[in-house]
Fold:
Amino acid sequence: MKPHISLTQFIIDQQRSIPNASGDFTMLLSDIASACKRIAHAVSRGAMSGQLGSAESENVQGETQKQLDIITNDIMVDALEWTGHLSGMVSEEIDEPIVIPEHFPKGKYLALFDPLDGSSNIDINLTVGTIFSILKGREGCNASLEDFLQSGSQQVCAGFVLYGPSTLMILTTGHGVNGFTLDPDIGEFVLTHRNMTIPEDSQEFAINMSNQRFWEAPVQRYIDECMQGRQGPRGKDFNMRWVASMVAEAYRILTRGGIFLYPLDQRQPDKGGKLRLMYEANPIGFIIEQAGGLCSTGRQRILDIQPDGIHQRVPVILGSKSEVERVVDYHQQT
Ligand SMILES: O=P(O)(O)OC[C@H]1O[C@](O)(COP(=O)(O)O)[C@@H](O)[C@@H]1O
Ligand SMILES: [Mg+2]
Ligand SMILES: [Mg+2]
Structure:
């Protein structure tokens, strides 16, 4: 049987089509892959590690951090700051942009990441993940805050890693979406899902129903109609899922279609939503669009948003094209 293609081989092949590619990007991606292998190990040790549960600290989001939020953040920063491919980083767990230490070279890329996504699931042994977004920076300089405030359509690359029954990296560099499974025998991510595409239609929605009374009218209407099933205006029954891990929802949708909504919450309309634009909505949105789906706030394409802050939050509606179009249409009708 032909051996699987490794992640590094796959990226080098892709880079061959880019004139004067320096190899920096390939090396940056393999640094990120190494960090995620270490996170996979840390997460898989579960209660044996003594690192489950909450830390005594809060992050800039006002959320009590899990010990593994901090540990996975440190793994990412330690693995990336010295490599010479980055001029700056942003993490969900750190208030300010992360500066590359004085004595390390400053590279041409910027990395933005959510080191542990779905962290409310870590203590109950459910799937969690890491999400990352790569933007162009200014080589040789320490990145300024403004350098990071680029719209999602400027992303060079986006990916997420799922730490589930198997460890999977889902990746796009703007040429479709591919999936790589971590082969524990050789410690390599190998190509197992080529050119993933999202089915256009779907009968499965994911939303945290406990927030229903705080949703805006267009979302209320969309979910009501799904719940009415074949007796209602949609004329077909819908199934519901909620994993409380955005990475797991995104992977399910890449695999069998569906729609995921974390809409605006009228409890705190000025908050702008729950999920973060720069290291959750933009990277996942880039992947979903590259697989033929859509990603919107309900009123705007997520990748067109001009960011005004590195921890900015947005409403997120993503997945199968026809379903997202319907929710956007309901917003336009109000
Ligand atoms: O707790 P809720 O309201 O169900 O929210 C779940 C959502 O929050 C998140 O866990 C937020 O991400 P973090 O765990 O990285 O903070 C998403 O992964 C998930 O979709
Ligand atoms: Mg997250
Ligand atoms: Mg997180």
